[in-house]
Structure formats: structure tokens, C-alpha cells
Amino acid sequence: MRRHQLDIQLKTPDQFEKMRAAGLVVAAALARMRDAVAPGVSTADLDAIAESVIRDAGGVPSFMGYHGYPASICSSVNEQIVHAIPSPRQVLSEGDLISIDCGAVLDGWHGDAAITVAVGEVRPELLKMATVAEDAMWAGIEAAARGTASGRGRLTDISYAVESAVKKGGRYGIVEGYGGHGIGTEMHQDPHVLNYGRPGKGPQLVPGMALAIEPMITLGSPKTEELADGWTVVTRDGSVAVHVEHSIALLDDGVWVLTAADGGRARLGDLVTGRQPAASEI
Fold first, then answer.
1. Which pTM does this prediction carry?
2. How many whole angstroms separate alpha carbon 106 and alpha carbon 54?
3. Strand partners, 99
């Protein structure tokens, strides 16, 4: 079932269960990589961990082979924003900040999420920026949940919530042009979800939609450049960037953060669907 114009794929609750399974595989891979991040570890080492976790769970890395992409994760360090290709030559050092984007497809359904991780002792302003990005992502997810519940939510309410949270957190660049997306039987679907914009625009937020919400912010300019490898996107001014992401499902009785181990319960409380067990039941 698809909504007209933007070709937005609407899912059934049972299909969301399958997406949840894929999301948990992604969550497990990211947790393993978070634990492995340390000075002296290469981004290729992290990529190997992700592929192992995904394949051991019966899944396939979403990114590998996507338009020719050669790896299971994107591993963006410092001024790299997104889509950096893992390499044995990219070795992490004390004080680095790495954003790890990971996707998995299981039984035909995709999960997609990203985390930003400090390597050893990191400058306080970088840690703060990572926290601001995380808070902005959750603000966008909350806006999606409340907008769906009210029946009056529009897509750019998410964009506005993310932008407002970033501005509340400090003076950061919100990366231009890049953002979240629909997700389901393909990794990238309509609609595109920018991290800035006026509220009340775009398609209505309705049960059945699945979206990846992913703020990308910088310590400097929001302007970007793509490197000669055709993938890696960096800040034009060389400032450090962060990227975080969760995939979410909108249901009749609440939101489900498909790539969060607790389904979003700790951050969203009663806004989370009853399909996600309470912590005491997990």
C-alpha cells in the first residue's frame, strides 16, 4: 500500500515486527562496535565486526553493494560527516570522534541507525555537540509521535523540531541537503526528511509510515564537499561533525524506535507503542 505523489510505503503492524527484527540486528552491531572503539582500532576492524554480527543473525549488510558501496558501515571520523568508507589505513586516535552508520536487511526488511562515539578523551565541546545531536534526534522522533497521535502532524514538524533542538543547544551548522528518509523494503524511500525547515508542511504523519531520523551537525559551517572517492562527505571548513540516526515506525497507539534496544521507552515513555514490552518484560 503506497500513498500517492511521494510514493510513501505504508506498513502493517506485522510488517513492522519484521522491521523491528532487522532494527535489533543493527542495534546489536552498533553496540558491539561502540565497545570496540579505541585508539589503534581501524575503521576496517569496525566494519568486520558489523558484518560478522549481521551475517551471524541471518541478515545481509544493507550498505554493501548499494550503488557500488564496498563496505558494511560508513565510518566518518572528525571532519568526515557521512559515507566515509572503512579502511585499514584509517586508524583511530585519542581525541577523535567517529560516526558509525550501519544498516541490515533481514527477511526483506531494512533497519538503519547511526551513533557517534568518542575515542578516548575527547574535547568537551565535541562531546557537547554529540549530545546536542542526540537530543535533536529524539526531539524529532517525539514530534513524529505527537503529530501522528494528534492526526495533525506534518513531515516538516520533524524537521522543525530537530532544527529547534540544535539551535537551543548552541551555535552549530546543520548540514545542508542531507537528512533522513523513508525506510522499509528498500533502505531509502520517500519521503526525504530534512533536519531544518518550517513546520506544518509536507505529507501528513500517519500510522504505517516508517522513517529514519538522522541529524548531522558541525562545529562550523554547514557547507559540505564530496571527496574524490565519490562517497565521503566532509565539512568544507574542516570543522568536526557528528551524525546520529534511528529508524522509527508510526503506529495507531504510538511510535516504535525500531533500532533502539528498548524501543525508545527510556526517552519517550508512554509515547511508545504497546507492541514494545516494558523494561520489566524484556
1. 0.96
2. 9
3. 76, 116
